[in-house]
Amino acid sequence: MDIAHDPITADDIPSPAQPPLIKREDYTPYAWRVPETALDFALGLDQTQVTATLKLERNPAGEASDEIRLNGDGLTADRVAVDGANITDWRMDGPDLVIPLSGKAHTVEIATTINPRTNTALMGLYASNGMLCTQCEAEGFRRITFFPDRPDVLSTYRVRMSGPKDQFPILLCNGNNTESGEGEDGTHWAEWHDPWPKPSYLFALVAGDLVANSASFTTASGREVECNIWVRAEDLQRTGHALESLHRSMKWDEEVFGREYDLDLYNVVAVSDFNMGAMENKGLNVFNTKYVLADPDTATDADFDAIEGVIGHEYFHNWSGNRITCRDWFQLSLKEGFTVLRDQLFSQDMRGEAVKRIEDVRILRAAQFPEDAGPLAHPIRPDSYREISNFYTATVYNKGAEVIRMMRSMTGAERFRAGTDLYFDRHDGEAATCEDFVQAIEAGADLDLEQFRLWYQQAGTPKVSVSQQVDGDILRLTLTQTVPATPGQPDKQPMPIPLRVAVHSRTTDSLGAEQLIVLDQATQVFELPLAGPDPVVSINRGYTAPVIVERSLDNADLVFLAAHDDDPFARYEAMQELAVGHLVAAASAELDGAALAEGQSALVDAMRSVVTDVALDDSMRGELMLLPSETYLFEAMASGDRKADPGAINTAREALRTAIGQALATELNALHVRAQKVDFDDPDGRGARKIKTQALAYIAMSDRAKAAAMAAHQFDHADNMTDRQGALMVLCGLDCPERGERLTAFYDRYKTNDLVVDKWFTLQALSSHPDVIAQAKQLAEHPDFTISNPNRVRSLYMAFAGNPSAFHAESGEGYRMIADVILALDPINPQTAARFVSALGRWRRIEPKRAALMKAELERISNAKNLSRDTFEQVSRSLEG
Ligand code: 0A1
Ligand code: ZN
Question: Closest residue (by CA) to atom 7 of ligand 1?
Answer without folding.
Answer: 137
